[in-house]
Amino acid sequence: MKKLHPILLAAALASGAWGATAQTLKPGLWEIHNTMTSSSGELEKVMAEAQKQLAGMPPDQRKRMEDMMAQQGVGLGAGAGTTAVKICMTPEMVTRNDIATQQGDCQQTTAARSGNTMKFSFVCTQPPSSGEGLVTFLSPVAYTLQMALNTTATGKPEKMKLDASARFLASECGHIKPLSPPKK
Description:
This protein has 184 residues and is of the alpha+beta class.
């Protein structure tokens, strides 16, 4: 199976983190369902091919691949461009508003929370990307996220859109480990 596009994986992981802040969210294991679209359609083609390859594997090989992805908290959704990601938010991360799971060298700016929403922006050097988004806090156990991402894929500028919904699963994270916060 081809490797998943690094920007796809970074954005999928980041979706669970940006904006999930402050005293309203419960620390513990969260599941984030993401739908990503790209301006070129390339992301959707890569995801569709990955799902096709996974579906075409012998059952034992497919199970091993799904188990390996699950150990990292990642699963492919039913449609092209959809993923489900599990992340662990520690009490310290929630308290510090440093709940971040993006991979790479990133700097994040978070605007003050206004009611049940919060805006954020970010710039990453590895992988090179930037964007902004809006988090809507629905309750201590649920939030939604909309994010616009600018990056380069196969040497060409690419705009991506991510829509996510997150839900709290459990107080204990099990084998899912928290990731490092972004640079301030």
